[in-house]
Write a structure and sequence with these properties.
By secondary structure, the chain is mostly helical. It has 14 helices and 4 strands. The chain has a two-stranded antiparallel sheet. Helix 1 crosses helix 13, helix 8 crosses helix 14 and helix 9 packs across helix 10. The longest helix is centred in the N-terminal third of the chain and has 32 residues. The protein is globular and about 60 Å long.
């Protein structure tokens, strides 16, 4: 009897979550059809983040009306030429927002004689795509000098890069951010989620940024695109407990496949620089394949597998195997994430940079 009750409880939890997301999807469509972009009826009203009210849709419609179109045009051309850039720009946006909030502090270069900037932190050394933001900024500075922030450019670019394959924006971007003036590598090392984190650590880190377990699972779905170096997860394959063993939570056939891609030779020595797709169903298509793989214990990182160690997170992941449900919630969670601790006009420590790499 107890087992049946547990099964029923799990079913009800999944059903309620599915219906809640489905209703929000409907609300988002109705809002779009009615042309209501006031920020209060975009399918995420019930899940507004703490800082969302500081931003609004079409912030630049008077001061730089072409801004969003310019970002989209440049990003679309870049992603069309190199589809791998979608994952890379999204990752830059993630890494910016989790440190000091979404203030483009990650874009700042280090200055001689001062503490190293976020770019120099070990988790950020493999980031690319900064030159695309520079290109967009150069165009916008010619059209609308000292108007469009680097933080808004990065947020729009990430959305447009991921959305390119669908030919439409997957979520709304609320704008009005200004750029931060402080960037410290030590803070990036401290605040960025680790690929080796357990569920408790991830949940606490996300909670600091006003992101709950649904956001945690949805945003983890970004691993449905992109690649990773074997050195990031190699311990799971060849030396999980220090005895030359494999992480038992990893699907055995998937582990064998990864070993074949990550081992330098027959001696099974790890080739740390070898690269594999983060989602075995395909590294270029932004869809629910990540969750299908995750439920088969094919999550690449320890942090992916950690989602299955919590019953709520595991149930949410199961619901997100439906692509429409995942994409709807991912969009709402991105709106929350992209508003973390944002600086806006009048806030202390903010400015509109003329060059995204240096403070004014």
């Amino acid at each position: 009897m107890a087992k049946n009750q547990q099964t029923l409880a799990r079913f009800i939890f999944s059903l309620v979550l599915f219906l809640a997301v489905a209703l929000s999807v409907s609300a988002k469509r109705d809002s779009h059809n009615n042309g209501n972009n006031n920020g209060h009826n975009n399918g995420h009203a019930t899940r507004r983040g703490r800082w969302e009210g500081k931003l609004k849709m079409k912030f630049y419609h008077k001061t730089c009306p072409e801004a969003e179109d310019i970002v989209n045009e440049i990003v679309s051309k870049k992603v069309k030429a190199n589809p791998n850039l979608a994952a890379k720009l999204l990752r830059v946006h993630y890494h910016d927002c989790f440190v000091r909030g979404c203030d483009a502090s990650l874009l700042l270069d280090s200055v001689a004689g001062k503490d190293a900037s976020e770019k120099e932190a070990r988790p950020n050394l493999s980031l690319v795509g900064f030159e695309i933001i520079d290109e967009i900024k150069t165009v916008l500075e010619k059209r609308c000098p000292k108007t469009v922030s680097c933080a808004d450019i990065l947020t729009l670019a990430a959305r447009d890069a991921v959305s390119y394959q669908y030919g439409r924006p997957l979520w709304n971007v609320f704008t009005g951010r200004v750029d931060g003036r402080v960037s410290l590598a030590t803070e990036a090392t401290r605040d960025l989620p680790s690929a080796g984190a357990n569920f408790t650590s991830l949940q606490k880190l996300f909670a600091v940024s006003d992101l709950d377990v649904v956001d945690l699972v949805a945003l983890s779905g970004a691993h449905t695109i992109g690649t990773a170096r074997c050195g990031v997860f190699g311990r799971r394959l060849l030396n999980f407990t220090g005895k030359g063993d494999t992480d038992p939570s990893l699907n055995s056939s998937y582990a064998s496949l990864l070993k074949s891609k990550c081992s330098s030779d027959k001696s099974q020595r790890l080739n740390s620089s070898a690269v594999v797709g983060m989602d075995p169903t395909g590294a270029l298509s932004f869809d629910s394949g990540y969750f299908v793989s995750l439920l088969q214990h094919k999550g690449l990182f320890t942090s992916d597998a950690a989602l299955l160690t919590d019953s709520s997170a595991a149930h949410i992941a199961s619901v997100f195997q439906n692509s429409e449900t995942f994409l709807a919630q991912f969009g709402r969670s991105m709106i929350k994430m992209s508003s973390i601790k944002v600086l806006t006009l009048g806030d202390e420590g903010g400015e509109i940079r003329r060059n995204c790499r240096v403070v004014n």
